[in-house]
Amino acid sequence: MTDNRVDVAPGEPPRESVSEQDIWTDFLIYTVGLSLAAILTVTSFWVANTSLLWAPGVPAGLAVLAIAQMGVHVVFFLHITTGPDSSNNILALAFGLLIAILVCAGSLVIMANLNANMAEPQMMEMLRRL
pTM of the entire structure? Predict the structure, then answer.
């Protein structure tokens, strides 16, 4: 006896078999996700290379576009939903985000400390003479 059930994302209703409609629906979802990701990527490159935007606002614009792209990937490709079956995936995603933030923040603290403790150029010149 074979098992004809289809593996679905957490939070989605289970499917007993695959129909042609399901294949086209999945194709459409992935196509929309790919299109949105490509548009956000091209927009990010445009924002970084244009002079039409206020220069101090460019990093904020890039941060917003990056967050939007992460949201597109989470929804369209990782299929993280608000369903009850998705709680473990949400916790894993939150833990990964925490680790990434800790690594980035720790690196910035270390670099700031190294920068603050660097010798002045005059002191470096004196040390070279020794």
Answer: 0.67
Which of the pair, 122 or 52, is modelled with greater confidence? 52
Residue 51 belongs to what domain range?
1-81
In tens, the pLDDT along 28-64 reads 999 999 999 999 999 999 999 999 989 999 999 999 9
Residue 128 — left, alpha, or beta (φ > 0 → left; ψ -120 to 50 → alpha)? alpha
The residues near 43 (Cβ < 8 Å, ≥ 6 apart) are 65
How far is 96 from 63, CA to CA, in rounded Å?
18
Average pLDDT of span 103-114: 96
Residue with tokens 């792209």: 69
**In the prediction, which pLDDT does 93 show?**
87
The residues facing 102 across adjacent strands are none
3-state DSSP: the chain helix, strand, coil percent, rounded to 5? Answer: 75, 0, 25
55 and 110 together in one domain: no
| Chosen domain end from 58, 81, 104 | 81
Give the chain's domain count. Answer: 2
Domain match, 52 and 104 both: no
